[in-house]
Amino acid sequence: MVLAPFDYARPETIDAAADALADGRGQVLAGGQSLVAAMNLGRQSPVRLVDINQIPELTEVTYAADRIIIGATVRLAELRESPRLLREAPLLYAALRHVAHVQIRTRATLGGNLSQADPCSELPAVMVALGATATLRSQQGERDVAMADYIVGPYRTSGDQTELLTRVTVPLPSGAAAGFYEIARKAKDWPVIGAGAQVRVNADGFIDDAWVGACGLAGRPRKLIEVEQALRGKPADADALRSAASVATGAEEYPGARAGARYRERVLPVVVERALVTAVETTREQEHVA
């Protein structure tokens, strides 16, 4: 298929990118893993492509005492290969292990993955679970949006065509371990449903806190608050994990779902339990090494 004509802008600063998007007719090009495919199929015909890959600030990863700040064009492969991310952001790292093939991760960016807002995507689910924040920039200024409010539905975000996602701030709960489990039709395919869990277990073997999120459950990533509440103060044993996972619910039909809501509702507690078991087992392995 012959692509429709489009203008091309390659800004080198965030301000210049905001200028290129100001009329609402630009489309951001980062890794291009979804956008270029959609253009080839005739599903998208942008008037202007705004290539943000030459903006240095968007490639930065900054660690602070209680959070990590990740630029929008940081490649998923860079994050996946980071030993520090494994140590300090275990839930994000656990989810990255399930994202696509290495060829795709080499080009795909964090900002592009989140802005695509695919309901089955692993990364939005763990971002929502951890309480991450998206920072958006336009000519009118900068605003921060909770990730739970940034992704509003299947392939839809609360950002508009004049705004650029510049960075994502992810809280880093201390002393916690994580696990991620998903069901997919084949290896590295989009999951039918998945869940990520991060838990903090105290010296007495009880769960002090938990962060749990699901992808593929509904048209947007879901923080499983009911599971988190059921875990807090409970012993980190098999019965408690299974009991907490059993309260997980909320499957909905949505466009593009890879299985019916009835099936996803049925397997959700199993998926959550396996993510929790992995997290607790990782905690025990860390204690043994220490």
Automatic annotation (TrEMBL):
<dbReference type="Pfam" id="PF03450">
    <property type="entry name" value="CO_deh_flav_C"/>
</dbReference>
<keyword id="KW-0274">FAD</keyword>
<dbReference type="InterPro" id="IPR016169">
    <property type="entry name" value="FAD-bd_PCMH_sub2"/>
</dbReference>
<dbReference type="InterPro" id="IPR016166">
    <property type="entry name" value="FAD-bd_PCMH"/>
</dbReference>
<dbReference type="GO" id="GO:0071949">
    <property type="term" value="F:FAD binding"/>
</dbReference>
<dbReference type="Pfam" id="PF00941">
    <property type="entry name" value="FAD_binding_5"/>
</dbReference>
<dbReference type="InterPro" id="IPR051312">
    <property type="entry name" value="Diverse_Substr_Oxidored"/>
</dbReference>
<dbReference type="InterPro" id="IPR005107">
    <property type="entry name" value="CO_DH_flav_C"/>
</dbReference>
<dbReference type="GO" id="GO:0016491">
    <property type="term" value="F:oxidoreductase activity"/>
</dbReference>
<protein>
    <submittedName>
        <fullName>Xanthine dehydrogenase family protein subunit M</fullName>
    </submittedName>
</protein>
<keyword id="KW-0560">Oxidoreductase</keyword>
<dbReference type="InterPro" id="IPR016167">
    <property type="entry name" value="FAD-bd_PCMH_sub1"/>
</dbReference>
<feature type="domain" description="FAD-binding PCMH-type">
    <location>
        <begin position="1"/>
        <end position="175"/>
    </location>
</feature>
<dbReference type="InterPro" id="IPR002346">
    <property type="entry name" value="Mopterin_DH_FAD-bd"/>
</dbReference>
<keyword id="KW-0285">Flavoprotein</keyword>
<dbReference type="InterPro" id="IPR036318">
    <property type="entry name" value="FAD-bd_PCMH-like_sf"/>
</dbReference>
<dbReference type="InterPro" id="IPR036683">
    <property type="entry name" value="CO_DH_flav_C_dom_sf"/>
</dbReference>
